[in-house]
Structures are given as structure tokens and as C-alpha cells.
Amino acid sequence: MTERKTLSFRESVNFMVDRAMAVLNIDPCIANAIKSCDSTIKINFPVEINGKLEVFTGWRSVHSNHRLPVKGGIRFAPIVDEDEVEALAALMTYKCAIVDVPFGGSKGGLLIDPSRYNRDDMQKITRRFARELVRKGYLSPATNVPAPDMGTGEREMAWIADTYKHLHPEDINYLACVTGKPVAHGGIRGRTEATGRGVVYVIREFFRHPDDLRRTGLSGDLSSQKIVIQGLGNVGYHAAKLLDEEDQCKIIAIIQRDGVLTNDNGICVEDVRQYMNEHKTIKGFPDAKYSENAAAGLEIECDILIPAAMEAQIHVNNACNIKAKLIVEAANGPVTFEADDILRKKQITILPDAYVNAGGVTVSYFEWVRNLSHIRFGRMERRHDELHGERIVKALETMTGNPADDWIKKELIHGADELDLVRSGLDDTMRNSFLQMKEAMDSNNKIKDYRTAVYVVAINKISRSYLDIGVY
Ligand code: NAD
Questions:
Q1: Which of 71, 107, 181, 325 is catalytic?
Q2: Neighbours of 295 (CB within 10 A)
Q3: Are 229 and 255 in contact (CB under 8 A)?
């Protein structure tokens, strides 16, 4: 028997897109144009670490520039390569289209184990990588705007913005060259939590649709669901914390690289995070059972499984053992194409990555707009809205002859600040995109799953843009 070659991440994404293209019966030339990666740059650069030169390798891929700038995170990871960066760049193209963010898709990666370097070394390496990207035309507010991803955060984004500013001091929009910056350096409130919060908005929207719940085999409201989450990093932590604290779900398992914590009565996410910060491991956390078999955590019986760590976690060898009713792909590419097929046969519902984790790029878009307009959202209206609220309270009190209750005053005399506006814009985006995905699925009986539905939505929008402007 010939051994079947495992698909690469990029092939996996392309096969999933092909399934949607087959439903759409799209012109093969347009299909090819949409799928092909525009360009990928590989950069090797030396940095002096402890008196010795070390050579680092990084990539930045532009999948599609039918809209500019192109957008996508930069990951720093000990395992990253060209195939992965191209797959992630392609996902960004579809993701932006799904949530109506007017960007093309891009992604970057640097081959590095950040835990091996101190802060000063990381700064030197990040700045040098950024300088190379600027020089080669892969970093600018108008054409290519990175953001955080695995292994990077607002610290790295601040260094990147500062490096660009030094190379282009005349560019008045320099802050818009990267998103996910600290608020004090041109970032937007709510960006750090955005991807995880977006995941929760998706789940909440899903629970507003009884027919979708029924198809999935879920019953009861969100608070009665048992959840397993893999990865308590940026995305996983914010998603799990909200589900635990605001939605009162039971987080029955938390999977990290070094093992899995389980507790059928629920685990306090914030306590685990504090414990991890202090001990650099989940082992020994007092209020849950620990096992070092992290992989088995994915196979725990639960209502909702949220893979929020990295790609290819559910694959051909473990897909048959998955017992969740709903998989919410918070990470990029956590389910391989082969596993996706197995899970579909098992009638396990998947809410796909290209939609589920698009909250990050959505709020990045808000940050980019804020940087270009050079003003914080809400700065002009907030006080005005509060005065308007005060007038309504006064009118109510005059009409009733009684003082308004404090909670009514608080609700009415509240002008939206930047965080309120960002969260509202994010919620609106995730809800609208859900409805578009659902509409695609309900109106075409060839579409049997949400992944195909979101790609159909994305491809329709992208191909329209190709046809409108032509391809030159
Ligand atoms: P992160 O580095 O902050 O966190 C990743 C977490 O997963 C860490 O806690 C790590 O210990 C854990 N992890 C890694 N490998 C694991 C494994 N094999 N088993 C169990 N746990 C493992 O990264 P992040 O920014 O939270 O990104 C997570 C995923 O979400 C990635 O796929 C990324 O591409 C995607 N994503 C991130 C953003 C964002 O805004 N950060 C946006 C969209 C998509």
C-alpha cells in the first residue's frame, strides 16, 4: 500500500478553498488568480548576540494585493517556514474579505525561539528584521501593515513602528505602518483582547440561532456548555476568560504545551493565567487535575472545543477521537484538510478560522483608521453624548416628578469611549459576518458546512473585485 503524503498547511488551505470554488463553479482563471500567492520574500540577516554574530531567517508573504495595504501578523516561532507563512497569508486574504476589512492578505514569520533571548536582544533582532522589511518594500502604512501573532505582542509592534519612523520621519502616517501597538504609542484600546473577544462574539451569535444549534446537537443556553480550550496565550486567554466570567460557561479543560488541566466543575481561567505567569507551567495548579498528556486533552468529551494554539492540532490521527459537538477554530488552521473530512463525516460542526479569529484584523483595521485620522475614536462625541443623556434624565424627572434611579442615570449619562466603540464595532462585524455565512449556507443546498460557506462569501467578494477592476 502506498503511504499517503500529509498535506502541507498551504495545500490544506487551498483544498478547502477549492471545495468552495467547486460550489461556485468559478472561472478557473479567476480561481487561479485568487489562489496564487503574489510574492514571498525570505530574509537572512545577522545580529550580534553576546559578542557573536547569529544569522536569523524571516519571511514576509503577500498573498493578494487586490486591496492595499495588505495585512497580517508576524509570528516569532522556533518552527516556521515559507509554506506556513504563505498559508497564513492566504487565510488573511479570505479573512479580510469575510469581515469586510478593505485589505489584502499578508503574513510574516521569523524563525526564532524567543525564550532563548533577553529583552535587549529581542529588540535588536526585531528592529533589524523590521529594517529589512522596510527596505525591501514589505512594511509601510500604505502597502503592508503587520500585526502581532504567535510569539509577538505590542512590545514588538512598538519597536517595529519606531524603526519605520526613523527610516521615514517625513511620513506623517508612520504610526499606521503596524497595528497592535501599545495604547501610549498609537495603539487602540481593545486590540490585545480583540481576537479572543471576537471568538466569544461568534459563539454568542451562534447561540442566537436555534436552527444552527439544533443541527449541531447542542441544547440549552451558552452558560450550560462545557468547554475545552487549547492554548492560553493571547487569543485563548481572552476568549476563555470572557466565557468563564461573563457567560458563566464551564471551562472543563485547559490544554497547554506542557499538559492539560481538567475539572468537571469548571476551572477559573484567571487563576490559571496568574499561576502560569508565576510558575511558567500549568503543572501544580491546585484547583484542577493535571496530566502531562496534552494531546489527549483534545479528545475529552465536551460541548465546545476551542483550539487556540497553533495549526494542525486536529489531524488524520486524532480526528476520529474528537468528541466535541462544536469546534470553534480560534487558531489559524488547527484542523487539517484530512481531519476536516473525518469530522464532517462524524457530523461535528466547525466554525472556521477564517471567520472565527477575524476579530484581530477587524480591530487592527480600526487602529489603522485611527492612526490615519490622528484622533482617538469618541474624542469629539463623548462629552456631547453625555450632555444629551443628562438632558433626557432631566426631562424624565420633570415628567414623572421623581428623581431617576441611579442605574437609569448611569445608563443614560454614559458617552461611549474608545473601548466601547471598538467593542461595539467588533460585535457588529462578527454578527454581520455570521449572517452572511448563514445566508450563503441557507440559500445554496450544495453548501453543507460553515467552512465552505465562509469561503464562498469571501471568494464572491474577491472575484467581484477582480472582475470590477480587471487583472493587469
Ligand atoms: P500566543 O503565542 O500568545 O499563544 C499561543 C498559546 O498556545 C501559548 O499559551 C502556547 O503555550 C500554547 N501552545 C502552543 N503550542 C501548543 C500545543 N501544541 N499544545 C498546547 N498549547 C500550545 O499566540 P496567539 O497570538 O494567542 O495565537 C494563537 C493562534 O491564534 C495562532 O494560530 C495565531 O495565528 C492565531 N491568531 C492570533 C491572532 C492575534 O491577534 N494574536 C489573530 C488571529 C489569529
A1: 107
A2: 13
A3: yes
DSSP state of 298: T
Encode pLDDT of 75-95 as tens digits.
999 999 999 999 999 999 999
Give the span between the Cα atoms of 304 and 365, in whole angstroms.
29
Q: From the CB of residue 116, how many other CB atoms can be counted at a distance below 10 Å? A: 10
Residue nearest to atom 30 of ligand 1 (CA): 331
**Contact (CB, 8 A) for 226 and 459:** no
* CATH level 3 topology of 39-185: Rossmann fold (3.40.50)
Nearest CA to ligand 1 atom 17: 257
pLDDT digits (tens, 9 = 90+) for 250-272: 999 999 999 999 999 999 999 99
pLDDT bin (cut points 50, 70, 90) of residue 27 is confident
For the CA of 255, the nearest atom of ligand 1: 20
Q: Let me know if 283 is a catalytic residue.
A: no
Task: Note whether 71 and 106 are within 8 A (CB).
Answer: yes
Q: Where are the alpha helices (DSSP H) in 222-268?
A: 234-245
The answer to whether residues 199 and 308 touch, using CB atoms and an 8 Å cutoff, is yes
Nearest CA to 283 out of 304, 308, 256, 303 is that of 256
- Domain residue ranges in the chain: 39-185
Q: What residues line ligand 1, using a CB cutoff of 6 Å?
A: 73, 148-151, 195, 230-236, 255-257, 294, 308-310, 330-332, 357, 360
Q: Is 80 strand, coil or helix?
A: coil
CB 325 within 8 A of CB 252: no
For residues 171 and 164, give the distance between their C-alpha atoms in angstroms, rounded to a whole number: 9
Q: What is the DSSP string of 318-386?
A: TGGG---SEEE--SSS-B-HHHHHHHHHTT-EEE-HHHHTTHHHHHHHHHHHHHHHTS-TTTTTHHHHH
Number of other CB atoms surrounding residue 148 within 10 Å: 26
